[in-house]
Structures are given as structure tokens and as C-alpha cells.
Amino acid sequence: MQPVNTQHLRNYPKKPTQVYLFGTCIVDSFFPDSGMDAIELLEREGIEVIYPQGQSCCGQPAYNSGYKEEAKAVAMAQVKQFPLDIPVVVISGSCGGMMRHHYLDLLSDDPAINNFCQRVFEFTEFLVHVLRLKPIDQGEKERVALHTSCAARREMGVHITGNKLISQLANVDLVLHDYESECCGFGGTFAVKHADISAAMVADKSKHLVASDVVRYVSADHGCMMNINGALDYQKESLRGEHIASYLLNRIKGQSKAQSKGQSAKEAL
Amino acid sequence: MKHVHEEESKYAASAKDFRKNVTRDLANEELRANFRGAMDYLMDKRKSAFSSADELEVLREQCKLIKQRCLAKLPHLLEQLEDKLEHNGIKVHWAETVTEANEIIAQLIAEKKAKTVVKGKSMVSEETALNDYLEARDVECLESDMGEYIVQLAKQHPSHIIMPAIHQNKQQVAQLFADNIDGFEYSTDVDTLIQQGRTILRDKFCQADVGISGVNFAVAETGTLCLVENEGNGRMCTTIPDLHIAITGIEKVVEHLADVPPLLSLLTRSATGQAISTYFNMISSPRKQGEKDGPKEVHLVLLDNGRSQAFADEELRQTLQCIRCGACMNHCPVYTRIGGHAYGTVYPGPIGKIISPHMLGLDATTNLPTASTLCGACGEVCPVKIPIPKILLRLREESVKPNREQPQVMQGQGAGRSAVEAIIWKIWAQVHKSPTLYALSMWCLTRCRFLMPKKLAGWTSVRTAPKLAATTLHQQIKAKQAKQGRG
Ligand code: SF4
């Protein structure tokens, strides 16, 4: 399978009454508030969110490191946690791409895998194409940037759906930063294995985001944000990224990040 | 499988130094600026070459299918090509290794007692380090492509497969010419520089005994060697000297003449954004009776050098679809940062990461497949739709495979395996496939989060460390449900 963005060719289901949420291991251990915000946003839309407690990680770290058998075992264990025929909403484009596209390869000996992959939706994709969310913006006027993770962009089309959601916010000016589509340099173990290349990449990404003169940037992937926010914090820049679930919820509720519950922007590395 | 011997290649050693090279080149601000500027320019050029995304997609699919069809019939097409070429009067030579290729060429030159060679741009001759080989045998080998000429003067090798001297800016080239060319009139004007370079080269063309060139497409059906170029030097190399030797990789064969136009159109547009190159040469025979020019003898050397290893595996075979346009490197955020020389291989960038392991062994190139964020920019632009990120994953897998596991897919398989890493992933899998163990480990982690180090290897050299949450998402949801249950 070639990971290409074929999202626009998908048949989207009608708005369901129930969905599963796949929280991802990064959100689970570092950024649980983003997960809670995603749930709140979905519940406000009248959807019951089921969060199977048995879920852990999509398996991508091992898969990307060449440990296919290990990735397979973990992937299989995840699939078992989502038996009902309802959408699985994933709050990361990168993990979404793994579960929607790469599971087909990895778990090809499982006859039910196709059905599972068909049920996987990235969070913003789900909001735009299934919920057809029209967020009512109650927040103050501000300029923001959008950073789309590469897997989210190329495998899940999040640059389109993320853009669409933010563009609908009446008081938000979405600013395109230079080299917007360029990778931030995270790449999972890449950031550790090839730390100096990764450092050069995130230095450029953070520089371009700062130069775009926005109050915050928004992303659907905490992997990239851990990288970019970490670099911004190290450089003592005040700019931070926020998960799109939290951002949308705050805009709808008319809360700015500073007022909202949970992590302060500083904490949200 | 015949193993490529390391001593056969100076590149195996430099590829092993990847990390050192990266550190060196990342620190070179001027170099980084040169690459950034050049890559931005080439990306813009490519973008403006296609009228619509749909047109591009249709062409890419078409060209992918052409290359896949030709590769599926590769052994047969190679035989057909040999028959046709010999019938047309072009002599065919087969070389399994780079040394064999060099020996064949040196022998042909020696037979003519020739002493001077002009070369058109040929990455395959870089692969065999032909210049070094011939110079050691007292044959002067002059590069005639302007970029290659600059690189040769600077005693370097190409940093890009289409633009060999892209790592140099015009001031650096002017200085290089000033230091090396008698009577050079100092100028940093690009046209003046090229003009002066060309004047020197033109004399050499007329004196050379032998012309050496690459091949972009070798047509099996007609026995035609196609050569794409912009400077006219390729045409001169293949027409003026009495002996023309072409060298190329076995994957360059295409079935029909009709396969060439779509591939050519996509090649030039992906590479430089040109609708067509300035020159397109089709060589089908030596000089015939009554013709006024052209070489008296034409030879083709077909090189394997690890290609049949890639060919043997269906997934890795896709590597051979490459038409060497360079678009993957132009769009690669890693290549843009570290430049072409850091890879240490003949072919840099994404294509270099997936083809070099077959040429040099995965042991010499273990650092290449991991030096990618898998961002997918390369796969997105590749005109023949090679799933480069997917192949990088596959190479990572081959690299960490238990040593000598059968079947042996490639030379150097298992070279990147570390026992410690393997055990860590085993434990990781145990924890993440068991809900109980995962819950337990998260419970421990969140309780011990004050123990989390402030410094995390390379991560914290430019970033602060992320902080573990006090309560996980699992725990927060459980708490919320308990509250709702009570309420
Ligand atoms: S891999 Fe694709 S993009 Fe890269 S040089 Fe080859 S054909 Fe061009």
C-alpha cells in the first residue's frame, strides 16, 4: 500500500449516536486534557463517547523502528478493544494514518481488519465530514497558525479539514506561515537517533511560526507539538501550540486558553 | 548473491561516516544557505511545470505502470536490448560489479591507445568512480557538463544527481575558476562564468579520443540509447570522438519507443520544471557509411552493482523504477538541511537512502534508512510513484532483523540490530498489548513522574523535556465516569 491521501474518496457515514475514542499513548501520558476536551466537544454534539480502558498505543513506534512483529502484537491488541461497528475517532493524524492505512499491511492476515480500518477517522476529519460541525465562535479576535503533521497531511488530509474548521471561526484569522507544509523534524525515534538533523529542522519550524506573528498555533498532533513547543520553550519564546480539540472547544465556549481549565499554555508542552 | 566488496567502493567508507559528515555539514552556514536557496528554486520550478494536479497524477500513474511493466520483463528486455543493439552495431558489455565495469572501459580505451576522455554527465560512472580508476592508468578524464566540471576542479563529487555543483554558490565557483584556470577574467556573473568554462571545454572536445556518456532510457524494441541533457556537451561527447562508450544501470531499459515520451516529459518537468530538455539524443548506431560525423565505434556497459538484489524482492524492486529526476531530494527536508555530501554515497537524498544499501550493503549504510522522519514529501513528488517511505520502513526492518535470518534479502541485513534495543521493544510490546500491564506501568509512571530526567539525550539539546501528566487520560475518564455514576 502506498500511503497517499485518498480521504476525499471516502464514503462517510451518517452522524452516529456513539463513537469510540482512541486517545493515543502520547495524549494519555502527557496531554490528557486534550483527550478530555475532544470528548467534551463530541458530547456537546450529542454523541456518546466510548473510551475502552484496554487501549494503549497504535504500535507506530515499533513499526517505524523496523520491529514489525512487536508492532503487530500491539496493533492486534488495539483492534480487539474496538469490537462494535461504530466509528473509531483518533485524536492524532499520525496514529490515525497508522490505524487506517498501515494496519491493512501489518494485520493483513486478519479478515476483519478491513472493516476496522474503514471505521477509523482522524478527529478533524470526523468533525468535518461526519458531524459536519459548524463551530460558533465566541472567542476574541486573534491570529493563529495551523501546523499539520506530515502523516496527518499526506495520509489523512488534515491540512484540509483542520483548515476548514479554523476558517469557520468568525473571529480567527488563520495565518499561513512560511514553509507551512515542511516537516517539523519530530519523526518519533528520529528526533533521538538523529538529534542534530531534527534540531536543525525544529529550529526552522519554530522560527517560521514565530515570524508569522500569531498568538498561538494549532495542531491535530501532539507528537509535533511536543517537539515544537519544547523548542519554543527552550528558546524562551512565548508562542505555544494547542491541540485543535481544545482550541475549538475553547472558541465555542468563549474561553481563551488562559481562562480555560486544565493545562496552562506553558504547561502544555 | 555476489557480494559487493567494500574495497571496491570509496563510498562505503564515507557512508559509514554519515553521522560525522552530518555534524560537519550542519555547522556550515553557507552550505546550508546554498541548499535551501537552490531547493526552493527547484521546488518552485517543478510546481509551475504542471498545469493541474490531475494532469500530474494521471502522468505519474502512467509512468509508474510503464516502469513496473518494464521491470516485470527485465531479464527478457535486457536480452532483447542486447540483440537489437548488436544488430545496430553497438557492442554490449555486462558488468556485475563496479570494478568489472571499470575494467571493461579501461580495456576499450587501452585497445585504442587513447589518452584523453571527455565525459558527459553520468551518475553511473560516479558509482564506479571511473575518473579515479582511469587517472590511475594515465588516462585524462575531463568532465564536460558544467556542474561536473566544477565538481572535478574542486576535487569533489556531485552533491545532487541533476545539479552536481548545487552546493556551491557563484562566488565560490568564481573563486574556484580564478584558482584553477589560467587567464580567467574574474566575474561572479553566472553567464560569464559558464561562457569561460565552455570555451575551455570546447577545445577539449576536439582533442579527445574517447567520449563517455550515461543513458537515460535504453529502448529494447529498437536498440536506441536516449540521452537527456541541457548543454549540448552530451551530444559532443557522443559524436566527436571516434570511440563512444555509454554506461548505465540495468534498470534503465524500457520496452517500447512509445514508453519514452511520457517518461521524458515527467523527467524534465520533475527535475528542473522544463517542458523538455534543450537536447534529447537518440543514439542507434555508430557512424554509417556516407555519414559525416558520429563515432566509429559505440559500446554500452550495463552495470548491475546490487540492482539484481533489489530486483529479487517485489517490494524493494520498486526502487528500480527511479528515473533519476532528483525531485525527491529537492523536496526532502533532511537533504535540504544536510546537503548531498553528508550522505557519503553517490546518490544522496531519499533515492540514495533506498538504493545505496543495495550497492554498498546495509552494513555500510545502516544510518541512512533511519535518517528520515518519514514525512512522505519524497513519495508525494516521485514521478514514478516509488513508495520511498514504505521502502525506508522495509530497510529498517531488514536492518534490525536477527542476524542472518533466512531468507537473506540483502547484503548486510541485521547490521543495525542491537540486542538491547531488541529487548526494549520486546518489553514494550508486552506492556502495550496487555491492558493490565499498561495500566500498571502508567500508574507507576505518573506516580514517579518527579523522577523523569530533565535531560533526555539529544532531545534536550534544543528543547525542554515534556512533563508527564499527574493523571492519565485513562484515569481521568475513569474518574469522570465514577462521578457521573454517583451523580
Ligand atoms: S526516486 Fe523518484 S523522485 Fe527520486 S530521483 Fe528517482 S524518480 Fe526522481
UniProtKB/TrEMBL annotation, chain A:
Single annotated GO MF: oxidoreductase activity
Organism listed in the record: Colwellia ponticola
GO cellular component, one term: cytosol
Bilayer-spanning residue ranges: none
Pfam families referenced in this protein's UniProt entry, alphabetically: CCG (PF02754)
Domain of life, per lineage: Bacteria
Taxonomic lineage from the root: Bacteria, Pseudomonadati, Pseudomonadota, Gammaproteobacteria, Alteromonadales
Protein's recorded name: (Fe-S)-binding protein
Cysteine-rich domain span: 20-100, 144-228
From TrEMBL, chain B:
Organism in which the protein naturally occurs: Colwellia ponticola
GO molecular function: 4 iron, 4 sulfur cluster binding; metal ion binding
GO biological process: lactate metabolic process
Signal sequence, start to end: none
Residues spanning the membrane: none
Domain 4Fe-4S ferredoxin-type positions: 312-341
Listed InterPro entries: 4Fe4S_Fe-S-bd (IPR017896), 4Fe4S_Fe_S_CS (IPR017900), FTHF_cligase-like_sf (IPR024185), Helical_ferredxn (IPR009051), LUD_dom (IPR003741), LutB/LldF (IPR004452), LutB_C (IPR024569), NagB/RpiA_transferase-like (IPR037171)
Listed Pfam families: Fer4_8, LUD_dom, LutB_C
Keywords in alphabetical order: 4Fe-4S, Electron transport, Iron, Iron-sulfur, Metal-binding, Repeat, Transport
Protein known as: Iron-sulfur cluster-binding protein
